[in-house]
Amino acid sequence: EVELRNKAxxxxxxxxxxxxxxxxxxxxxxxxxDGLTRLGTSKDxxxxxVVQRRLVEGNLNxxxxxxxxxxxxxKDQGEKMEKGEERRKETSPLLIQCQCQGQVLKATVNxxxxxxxISKSCLNQLGLQEVSAMDCGDLSPPIPSVVGRVEHVExxxxxxxxxxxxxxxxxxxxxxxxxxxxxxxxxxxxxxxEGMLRFKALSQELPFLHASEEPGQ
Length: 217
Description:
The chain is α+β, with helices and mostly antiparallel strands. The chain has a domain at 95-134 and 143-209: Acid Proteases (Cathepsin D, subunit A, domain 1, Beta Barrel). 35% of the residues lie in helices and 24% in strands. It has 6 helices and 9 strands, in the order ααααβββαβββαβββ. Strand 7 and strand 8 form a beta hairpin. The model has no long low-confidence stretch (mean pLDDT 75).
């Protein structure tokens, strides 16, 4: 009985030694070792090299499989980008509703343009008189579509009325454009987060309109 027990312990030690002999190299104990014997003396055919190749191939296959599944994080980021683009489209260009000569206008807020601008068709619609023609070379930066100037334009912003001038442009894409000069004089604050244009000098604030909204909506 003692001899049988010793033989069993010896065989068990041999099996454990064989199963763990490649642990320090490539975790060969985690994979079946059958078929890895009698591979010759070539370095590429040694058990640890074969195991390493199998591990690399397995990882590549796993990565290929995972690449076909969309990441939830990427999906969330894509949705946030789409929502951000929708918000930018809603407030680009920046439009506010104001009144002139008793008529409702959609005015564009443009900090990149110094003077106010009014289209020729809007000028005729409001019944305002155009003054002498303008030399575009006097403007910085030049506005090539300028055809004249109107000196007295009464804009009603909220409950307050302001008097300003504007250049007449041959551009049917806009009605009225509030330039940087007027924005500075009225101490305007553009709040893109709340979607508001605040006139600190008038103690008034107006919400930005969506580009698709019509005046009076």
